[in-house]
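pasting for the record
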Amino acid sequence: MSVEVFSSLFARDLGKAAEEVEKYVSDEALWTLADGIGNSGGNLALHLAGNINHFIGAVLGGSGYVRDRDKEFADKDISRAEVAGGLRAAALAAAESFGSMTDEDLEADYPQEFLGEVRTNAWVLAHLLTHLNYHLGQINYHRRLLAD
């Protein structure tokens, strides 16, 4: 896979996540917990933005972003527009990071251990993309569950 492919997939899927957030029927619905579901769509979206801003923006791109993972799951009652804007900002941070990478950089080691092991940048980016899509699906299901 190339940097261009990763860049386009992250842009596409972070855009889809922002659109899902905007489709909630209300700001309150974004933060509603349904029976048996431990995270709201809002917290999952904040988590995705924090994840991308940290692992791609800060670690690969040197953006200076400082992650507060606990806050991603503790924050509540933020508007759909603000949460969607955070996802779009994460997409921009990723795009800026990819803009300074070459295809050869994909085979280099990620700058820090990832999940306790040394991994290549390509491996980490593939993992982050699957993680993004896992939570994107959860957000979509959560939104549709609450709409019925």
